[in-house]
Amino acid sequence: MAIATNLGFPRMGANRELKRLLERYWQGKIGAEALNEGAAEVRATNWQWQAEAGITQVPVGDFSLYDHVLDWAIRVGAVPAAYRTAKLVSHLDRYFAMARGSQQGVDLPAMEMTKWFNTNYHYIVPEWSTDQEFHLDAESFLKQVIAAQQISADARPVVLGPVSLLLLGKLKGSNESPLVLLDRLLPVYEGLLQQLSEAGCTWVQWDEPVLALDLDDEAKQALRHSLNVLSGSFGKSQLVLTSYFESLRENLPLAFELPVAAVHLDLVCGPEQLREALQHVREDQFLSLGLVDGRNVWRTNLTKAIALAESAAAAIGSERLFIAASCSLLHSPVDLATETEIDNEVKSWLAFARQKLDEIATITKAINNGPDSVAPALQQNAAAIESRRSSIRTHNPAVRDRVAAVSPESLRRQSNYEKRQSRQRDRLKLPLFPTTTIGSFPQTGAVRQARAAFRKGELSAEEYRQFLQSETEVCIRRQESLGLDVLVHGEFERNDMVEYFGEQLEGFAVSKNGWVQSYGSRCVKPPIIFGDVDRLTPMTVPMAAYAQSLTDRPVKGMLTGPVTILCWSFVRDDQPRQETCQQVALAIREEAIDLERAGIGVIQIDEPALREGLPLRKFDQPGYLAWAVDAFRLASSGVKDETQIHTHMCYCEFNEILPSIAALDADVISIETSRSQMELLEGFVEFRYPNEIGPGVYDIHSPRVPSSREMVGLLSKAVDVIPARRLWVNPDCGLKTRGWPEVEAALSAMVEAAQEVRSLLA
């Protein structure tokens, strides 16, 4: 009999219970005991839901209080020396100091954070040292396994494999690969496997997501070596090797060669790999079929999924099949049943995490008992698939005509950068090292309450407008008082930098509870692109123009770029992503032109997801970069030379795509660099970035307020690489999630640092 499995489940809870617990703990409103008890309740609910849906092997260990990569760094004893201070008396203090910075009065920076492969989930980058020692610290993990077994007897521990763990981190003070530490690390995994076997675990999920990447010979040999060494420690447990987000491609023979009892295939990203897999699977191996999309919200075409599973069953027998989602459901909202704001037609096309569990169970039952055993579910599914395919709401001929009319001239500014720079400097008259912020300012309780009251009809449109204008004026005055050179309006009308635009553009649906974890307690609610995208009316012009009317200093118009709107939405899968991105770009282009007409001289079009959207395999990257760059240029090139275009990027490894970033031809780019101590700027030593750049000088994801002296140090590193005349001074990212006291303190230090560096170079 085929077995229904799952690779992971959302952590936050249906109503973001974990988010609220974490934030109350950080605020000192609850203690560690209450946090741990509440987290255990969320975990148990997740297990119960999966078991009730028919998942036989419920995953355990996919849950985390902040980030699973950080969890595994700690489980193998890899706590950097700075965080081993006795002043951090509790495990939680140390954990959150590594994730967020200073805890309990101990002044420490947070560890570096970056994107999890090509998703918007952020993980904490482990820090390895050349004298690294490892030890097993998995007591809490094993307790979770035992607890899960009370709900699901065959609960499946989820382990981040040693090769991926090492490669996801950075070896400090050395140019060697972190894999030089592998033999030191393997005894820790050996001990863990022995304990899991003793706990009665029949199967262990062995995540090695690096198999989705282009691997060099060293990495391939490390995978062979690690599992060969560990094979004697499996005991009663069998390993299912899991990778996701891409086809295995040339790594497929390697995966089946390894001493594992099962191999997982992401058949959503690569259905074509099943044919080759059936040629490589050993007679003693299982296949795990990732048939349900773990990263998007569209219903699975069950007829097609069952056909794929049937072909596998015909080749190796259903008794050797696991039926699963393509990847962890971490990247999906929890439950469609709670949605009240999506209209019924679009809602009928969707499946959130709990509905995806039902899909897994349905496919499994169809394989085990025949399609007739699930005939009603198949009929309902087929009707929904056909409804979406034939709906007139998904196609807008006028939009498609505008995309077809895009010409090469639409992708170019009027003049080259040197001419634009001269005109912009004449217009803006900014000092050396101009200071600015990335866009958003604190979303206080009052702001959130007013937005909620407006949505409930408790505030009229006029009352809400007056409230927003009042908040905007206060924000402008605060920035003037701090001495910032280029101001922003604060974005108090925006719940999120992508969802806000999704609410106003045609072709989007917005959920009420479709939350997805981005990092820590931070959740986003991606809008759903179901149809052709069109802008019916200006979206940001009124608030930007009002803010500019309040001050003589330039105010930036704030837009989200087309690639980021694409990547941070649940995107339609019935046409190429490039086509959808072009449609979004045209809408943003129209908005930028309207901002310019309203007197806005600086327009920021954020593209933090440019690197995130990069395909995992090098072969696929040039094509993506070409259309992604064109989309930004289409969005930004409709304005005049004297209008300065900014863009912003953060929390990714950008050095490998610097030529494409330069090809955007933004006048100014701001990037996150503080957590890595300006490490990103090393790429500028070899690649001469032609335009202006604002490397972030403090980390906004931490409550810690750095000193001006620290920021001067970072700016000094930047000056060593970038000519001073082309440098800006700004935080790493927007300030929405922070509080006003820390924001004002940090920005005050930032302005002071800029002034000091100006004086040193005057």
UniProtKB/TrEMBL annotation:
Keyword Cytoplasm: no
Residues that span the membrane, as ranges: none
Cofactor note: Binds 2 Zn(2+) ions per subunit.
Name the record gives this protein: 5-methyltetrahydropteroyltriglutamate--homocysteine methyltransferase
Chain sites annotated for binding Zn(2+): 648, 650, 672, 733
The protein's annotated pathway: Amino-acid biosynthesis; L-methionine biosynthesis via de novo pathway; L-methionine from L-homocysteine (MetE route): step 1/1
Catalytic activity from the UniProt record: 5-methyltetrahydropteroyltri-L-glutamate + L-homocysteine = tetrahydropteroyltri-L-glutamate + L-methionine
Annotated Pfam families: Meth_synt_1, Meth_synt_2
Cobalamin-independent methionine synthase MetE C-terminal/archaeal domain span: 433-755
Organism of derivation: Blastopirellula marina
Cofactor requirements of the protein: Zn(2+)
Annotated family: Belongs to the vitamin-B12 independent methionine synthase family.
